[in-house]
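## Example record

The block below lists the input lines for one assembly entry, exactly as stored, with component labels intact.
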Amino acid sequence: MNPTDASPAVEITGLNRRFGATLALNQVSLQVRRGRVFGLVGANGAGKTTLIKHVLGRLKAQSGVVRVFGLDPVADPVAVLGRIGYLSENRDLPAWMRVDELLRYTAAFYPKWDMAYAEELRRQFGLAPRAKIRTLSRGENAKAGLLIALAYRPELLLLDEPSSGLDPVVRRDILEAIIRTVADEGRTVFFSSHLLEEVERVADDLAMMFNGRVVLAGALDDVKENHHRLVLRFDSPQPSAPKVPGVLSITGGGREWTAICNGKREEAVAAAARAGGRVVAEDSPSLDEIFVAWAGTKTE
Amino acid sequence: MNTPATALAWELWRRHRLRLIAIVGLVLAFALVYPALCTLAGFNPGSPDALEEMVKRAGLINNAGQWLQQVVQVLYLLFLTCGPAVGMVLTLLFVTWMFTFTEFDPRNKDPMTFPARLFTLPVSTPFLFGWLFLGGMTAIIVLYGCWVYWVPQPHVDIFGVYQNCFGWMTLLALAQGIVWALAAWPTTRMVLLMALLFCFLGSPAQRDIFESPFVLPPLFVLGTALAWAGLHKMRHGQWQGWPWPWPFAWWSGRAKMRGPKRFASPAQAQLWFEWRRFARRLSFYAAGLVLVPVAIHLLVRFVAGLGPMQDDTVLGFVVYLLFMPPALFFCFAVAPPQTDLPFVMNRPLSNGGMMMATLKAEGIGALFSWLVVLAALCAMPLLGVFQEVDQFSSALAQHRAIILLGVMILSWRLIAVSLGFTWSGKRWLARMPFWLMLMAYLGGVTLAMLAADDATWNSFWRLVPGLLVCLVVVKFLLAFLAFRLCLKRGLLAPSALQAWLAVWALLAATLFIPAAILFHDQPGFLPLSLGIILLTPLARIGFCPIALAWNRHA
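Predicted structure tokens for the full assembly:
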């Protein structure tokens, strides 16, 4: 792999997916650049897993194009899957296998499998080699899945809700450390999560999905830079949320309201002034607040 | 759904409605159609010894007609003799399972897990127990009554013991007791359930169990008490399983993972995976179902000093042994374990590679199963009088090799040809093997009706070669299209296709060469040869990678 290669690790253009009457993905386009950590966030049912399944080739694009390292994952699954380390949301490991058997079996498919690294990870995760998968706890199951996804040093690490089932300590100490290590080695990580503080800590880029659409995508720093939290004060108490153009969400009551807005700060301030309010405080919103603000616009 | 009782009844109905409808359909079919079929075949189920009558009729047929005509007739008469009893036993067993209220648990992959969610409902344990216990007993009584009073049951001595309602109620109580009390010990639970079924349905002590007034009542009370205690303990997390000290646990516990040997290739790893996932279990089930009854009978014969077994019992036992692998393989073909498919589909392995590994693993499983059956057959003379089986076997002496090869390949084929359906990921397609088998069965019934009249049969027989030729042409055409598509879409490597075609030719030759040696001068040789070509799977194997691609890239 050449980390300086300009072509993206994952490139999705105009992807649509329908399950019966439900439009699961609606004109989704995004790029995951090589050597970056890409976080995909969205509410439950937003289409994150559906999108990841398209990247894996488990779902065929009904319209649109999906390319992984320039390859079609449906037409050439062996070549694509050989470069991806995948952790499933469902942790669907064979229950009858032992941990050492799982490693031995998985190693056969990857010429670059690093047994020493696998062993190091196994110890780090505290997995007994002879433990059956069915006897592992949910967290241990996630660790076993992560282990086999990592041990061949894949070019693209694809994690579907990796934190699910992991306790906070494990999440911080292992998962985030691994994601950073993988990225530092010049490899790419594409992960979905609804834990926004986690995404905020590890992601370089992010995309936010609602109802099958990507509503926001870009570098995390840019996203945070383009959103503002403004505390507005009005001369008289407002009986309902004031209408301020360009504002994603507005909460509060009486004379003081807090608005989350997207775009240039000056435009938001001007819009607030036109609505009769003045900015008394402002700062950068957290990703959590940005997400909730966007969620509000999508559910109204 | 105003009450918890109604809600539970609704859940039971919702989970099993298709099966319950099938049971009602089966009972109605037997009640309405079976008497007419008996009349049509000139078979009197009310005769004091229906089995003897069947044997006589089969003997009459054996004197004339073609071999296929005779086989079809014998199978048809077997159905008429055993059909109601087999139907009754199967449906009562289903109701017994239904009222253990267990379901498949995807977390533990345990097929018989009592749903813990019931314990979070505001209902007492006595209510849960009472509902399931009394509901089950009522269902058993009603179903038993329907079978006994609506369906004419032929007078066959060996089936007489099943006509004991209290015996079935005891079986339900014991099954509930074992399943609920041993919820934390799945392996022990399965072993005890198998032992229970064997004791009730086929053991040498079966008649004693059903007929003795001192055996069933205590067993009923024991089952009830165990079921009550089991449900109560399960609700409060008592009676937990304990980790068995595995042999060499000290070694495995301390051992580091010393770089386990790597598989030579992905194909070898996948073969191991398929063997462990599927074929090994199938082989073990076959071995258990074949060897355990033989071992028990040997113990009864040589330790307890009872016996020897009677001639017709030995014959029945031999038939059981010969039918066991195909029956088991058919069950797996209809309901294969699919829990690991998503995991496998995320491996960098081609569809053809997955298919070849599965076919190989199943082949090994079939071979192993039949080796066990052959070993069991070798032990049969120790059990008792073997004269009738010997005569039967001598009559088929020339054909033994081809019959054996045929049933071995047939067992494997049952799963091989169903792969495409089950791998498609579509439920309606996955059930296709069952419907195909039902259609084959109905075809068999139609053939049996044709076989009753020599003139009609001969007219039909003249059409057979032409029909078979058409089917062979269609088969090759479909196979060509399927394999071409596989190659075009890269689902199957050309080397894998060549390997499969070589295996196909080998399998066909394995059946064809002995058939040619034995039957080359017989009038039925051409249909037999075409039948061999039709039975050796080709087109449906070609569609397997396509079906898998359909599922893999939905």
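Residues 168-184 of chain A form the longest helix (17 residues). The two ends of chain A are 45 Å apart (CA to CA).
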